[in-house]
């Protein structure tokens, strides 16, 4: 587990994010005391492609608009 002070984190933010994205956990310290932790993000549960196909998520624009999507969008926005 890597430790970085807030000052070091500011100077090395891009690298710290890359490390976290690759699975490493970084402990962030203030005056040598741990105050926060940076690590990999959790994967999202629902993926749009799978959700649309299964009926759990409906497309905003109905299928079969045959290019009328801009007209439909304008109607939805009330001409704004």
Structural description of this entry:
- This protein has 80 residues and is an alpha+beta fold.
- The protein has 2 domains: 2-38, YefM-like fold (3-Layer(aba) Sandwich), CATH 3.40.1620; 43-80, no CATH class.
- It has helices at 6-11, 13-21, 48-54, 69-76; strands spanning 2-5, 26-30, 33-38.
- The chain has a 3-stranded mixed β-sheet with strand order 1-2-3.
- Strand 2 (26-30) and strand 3 (33-38) form a beta hairpin.
- The protein is elongated.
- The termini are far apart.
- The mean pLDDT is 81.
Give a concise summary:
The chain has 80 residues and is α+β, with helices and mostly antiparallel strands.
Mean pLDDT value: 81
Tally of individual domains: 2
Radius of gyration: 22 Å
| Major sheet | 3 strands, mixed
Oligomer: single chain
As laid out across the biggest beta sheet, the strand order is 1-2-3
Spans where pLDDT lies below 50 across 5 or more residues? none
Helix content class: 25-40%
| Distance N to C terminus | 52 Å
| Content of β-strand | 15-25%
Question: Can you tell me the overall shape?
Answer: elongated
Sum up the structure in keywords:
80 residues; alpha+beta; YefM-like fold; 19% strand; 3 strands; elongated; 2 domains; three-stranded mixed beta sheet
Walk me through the topology.
Layout: E1 2-5, H1 6-11, H2 13-21, E2 26-30, E3 33-38, H3 48-54, H4 69-76
Parallel strand pairs: 1-2
Antiparallel strand pairs: 2-3
């Amino acid at each position: 587990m890597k430790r970085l002070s807030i000052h070091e984190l500011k100077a090395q933010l891009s690298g710290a994010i890359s490390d976290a994205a690759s699975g490493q956990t970084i402990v962030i310290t203030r005056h040598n005391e741990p105050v926060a932790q940076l690590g990999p993000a959790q994967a999202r549960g629902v993926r749009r492609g799978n959700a649309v196909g299964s009926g759990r998520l409906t497309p905003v624009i109905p299928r079969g608009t045959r290019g009328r999507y801009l007209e439909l969008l304008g109607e939805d926005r009330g001409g704004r």
